[in-house]
Amino acid sequence: MSTTERPKKTALLVAQRIVDDIHRRGNQIGDRLPPEKAMLEDYNVGRGTLRESLRFLELQGVITLKPGPSGGPIVQRPDSSAIATSLSLLLQFQQAPFETVVETRAALEPRMARLAAERMPADEIAALFAIIDLEQQNLEDENGFLTQTRRFHNSIAEGSGNFIFAALFTALSDILDGSSVGVQYPSRQRELTVDIHTSIATAISDHDPDRAEELMNTHMTALTTYTEKHYAKALAAPVKWRM
């Protein structure tokens, strides 16, 4: 260990052991972990250290702590919210603007579309076209439309078959959704979005990775140009940490 590297706190080491044991036992979502007395004996730590470990795992979305006599730690499935929280905290301390999040998304999405064209199963492709139908139905409802466009892009991220891409993309979307950028898309912009989404979905359905990547790159370039033109000041604002 280098002179600048600090040893991990006991509570974090215990948290790692708890996660290892969850996988070793084959615990499923909703399973209750052993009672506190058994965990104190298993991990040979004090009550304060164990509770700190459990609180850390709760913050990471690994467990939920159910109160009451029949409660205790319940296994959960972590999601992107922990990544978004940690990433937004890091970005705030770096005084990074929202523009960096937009740039990162624009770099990721064409590659994800390419992978989706290679890997996305038929049922998920059908769901992608169903989302586009909902976009069309919500053209006059901006909030409803934006909800469906996020579903569209999330579906492609998941359809890439790359869990890291999907988790990172969702975290970036969470940061942008929690921002004060306030980007609005007029009706003409929403119509153009439906058109390009339809073309992207068609390329994915045709299993044409080159075309899917090209179209997504065009889509991201257009979105970046639009936001830079109309919301340059907002994009230059620093990311702020949120819980």
Automatic annotation (TrEMBL):
<dbReference type="InterPro" id="IPR036390">
    <property type="entry name" value="WH_DNA-bd_sf"/>
</dbReference>
<dbReference type="Pfam" id="PF07729">
    <property type="entry name" value="FCD"/>
</dbReference>
<dbReference type="InterPro" id="IPR000524">
    <property type="entry name" value="Tscrpt_reg_HTH_GntR"/>
</dbReference>
<protein>
    <submittedName>
        <fullName>FCD domain-containing protein</fullName>
    </submittedName>
</protein>
<feature type="domain" description="HTH gntR-type">
    <location>
        <begin position="8"/>
        <end position="78"/>
    </location>
</feature>
<dbReference type="InterPro" id="IPR036388">
    <property type="entry name" value="WH-like_DNA-bd_sf"/>
</dbReference>
<keyword id="KW-0238">DNA-binding</keyword>
<keyword id="KW-0804">Transcription</keyword>
<keyword id="KW-0805">Transcription regulation</keyword>
<dbReference type="InterPro" id="IPR011711">
    <property type="entry name" value="GntR_C"/>
</dbReference>
<dbReference type="InterPro" id="IPR008920">
    <property type="entry name" value="TF_FadR/GntR_C"/>
</dbReference>
<dbReference type="Pfam" id="PF00392">
    <property type="entry name" value="GntR"/>
</dbReference>
